[in-house]
Automatic annotation (TrEMBL):
<dbReference type="GO" id="GO:0019305">
    <property type="term" value="P:dTDP-rhamnose biosynthetic process"/>
</dbReference>
<feature type="domain" description="RmlD-like substrate binding">
    <location>
        <begin position="29"/>
        <end position="315"/>
    </location>
</feature>
<dbReference type="InterPro" id="IPR005913">
    <property type="entry name" value="dTDP_dehydrorham_reduct"/>
</dbReference>
<dbReference type="GO" id="GO:0005829">
    <property type="term" value="C:cytosol"/>
</dbReference>
<keyword id="KW-0560">Oxidoreductase</keyword>
<comment type="similarity">
    <text>Belongs to the dTDP-4-dehydrorhamnose reductase family.</text>
</comment>
<dbReference type="InterPro" id="IPR029903">
    <property type="entry name" value="RmlD-like-bd"/>
</dbReference>
<comment type="function">
    <text>Catalyzes the reduction of dTDP-6-deoxy-L-lyxo-4-hexulose to yield dTDP-L-rhamnose.</text>
</comment>
<dbReference type="Pfam" id="PF04321">
    <property type="entry name" value="RmlD_sub_bind"/>
</dbReference>
<protein>
    <recommendedName>
        <fullName>dTDP-4-dehydrorhamnose reductase</fullName>
        <ecNumber>1.1.1.133</ecNumber>
    </recommendedName>
</protein>
<dbReference type="InterPro" id="IPR036291">
    <property type="entry name" value="NAD(P)-bd_dom_sf"/>
</dbReference>
<dbReference type="GO" id="GO:0008831">
    <property type="term" value="F:dTDP-4-dehydrorhamnose reductase activity"/>
</dbReference>
<keyword id="KW-0521">NADP</keyword>
<comment type="pathway">
    <text>Carbohydrate biosynthesis; dTDP-L-rhamnose biosynthesis.</text>
</comment>
Amino acid sequence: MAFFSGNKQADDQDETAKNTFIFQMYPKNVLVTGANGQLGSELKRAVVGHNDILNFIFTDVAELDITNLQAVDEFVKNNKIRYIINSAAYTAVDKAEDDIDLCYKINRDAVRNLGIAATNNQSKVIHVSTDYVFDGTGSRPYVETDPVCPKSVYGKSKQEGEAVLLETCPDSIVIRTAWLYSIYGNNFVKTMIKLGQERDALNVVADQTGTPTNAADLAKAIVRILDYTEANSHFEAGIYHYSNEGVTTWYDFTVAIHQAAGITTCKVSSITTDQYPTRASRPQYSVLDKSKIKDTFGITIPEWEDSLKVCVAELLK
């Protein structure tokens, strides 16, 4: 099949035909990295009984070391991977300030490896990033084109991961998310429930504003992106923002967690960031504008309070 004629209009049509041909003929295997983390675990649930079109291959470090370029390239090639969903990350924000080499190895260098392997094997990448790429000095929801200016080692490593991915594999999707939690792994929701059950009082920062994200909702959004891509034979590469809807603070988030969990014996008091110093700097304001991802893929995003209640109900089971 020829895809070049010398006539621009005809060549544009042939390019579309070429892309459609590749989508139709290329195996529909999906590699998911970080499969044992919060998002990876939720992706496992999200694809159960979904459809028979895509075949998901879930890996964590035991199955695939993404910091090893040769291993990644061979895995993608041998398994004929069509999509790579990278949910693997170094997320210990404070520890990263001292564990710099490992943080960058996972959040930047491994992402470069995935980008190179994807380009070598005509694969597409969906990579999950963070609101920490912003400095948090804004006063309106951040859009994808706003300048990035991370203030922590973690944020810088994630921002550089975005950059090297889009450099090595421009045909990629980067999804920035925020305040992620789920029924899996260690997260703020689980910690606040545990402390609320053990203590009479808690002090929580009230001057950092953002939006919690139930990892189950993000997993469904990613699957929706794959469905959209398959249905339209077109991959809408670029940077997108995703969190649940609404705005809150860590203090109000904690109060809502305790209400959802039926915790009434623990008094939650508000404090300022200055009263609770941490090793790494956090964005004071990191609300994300989700218009682009909603408009592009037709995604409906739940309110954060509703998604929190769903998660807490599952945890209490």
